[in-house]
Design goal:
single chain; 241 residues; alpha+beta; Structural Genomics Hypothetical 15.5 Kd Protein In mrcA-pckA Intergenic Region, Chain A; Alpha-Beta Plaits; nine-stranded mixed β-sheet; four-stranded antiparallel β-sheet; 6 helices
Length: 241
Amino acid sequence: MPEVRLQKVLAEAGLGSRRKCEEFISSGRVTVDGVIVDELGSRVDPEVSIIHIDGVRIAQASGKVVFAFNKPKGVITAMSDPHGQQCVGDFVTNIEERLFHVGRLDSDTEGLLLLTNDGELAQRLGHPSYGISKTYVAKVSGNFDKNALRDVLAGVMIEDRPVEVTRCRIIDQSKAVTVLELEIHEGRNRIVRRLFDALGYPVLDLVRVQVGPVKLAQLKSGQLRQIANAELGKLYLAVGL
């Protein structure tokens, strides 16, 4: 792709008018491949150049896309299924790019799943060294007491390794059911369900509501939304890209 003016790339990334983007450049707030660029005539190749503004990577025309998907309950995390079971891939047939899922949600768990064609982003999001947080809302059987809450935060041992829960709070509670929100930084298979099973509070419903800086928000079950602009920049920043 031929090089284009930097301010045009910034404007097309949704950062404001060309004039506003020129101000960003002149004030030294923009870096290209790690170097501050403050010359208005500067040109870049948006397909390969890594551009940041105020330390946050911008969404640029790199051919890489990221989508947030609200996976419904009963849908398997796969882009195709030889047995004909409904899968994530069935919901993205109208997307031009060849997407793959980042991590997994088991069939009975619903909520936020990231889809992308950016292999490096996906690899970093899944690598434990980057400590990407995942937030869940769990509806469990039983009245969750203070001792159980303390045990969760202390680190319940699963397969000789503690589950690191950085935050856990009770949202709602009755004698028979408790609804909790918890944040973890790992992705072992069915780890949230196994955590509560170990404590004697089986999970009745489980929804993932956030991955890193990306929130499920008001996205309806089975729907997609493309992550762009500042939200995409924060996601790349979280994994050092």
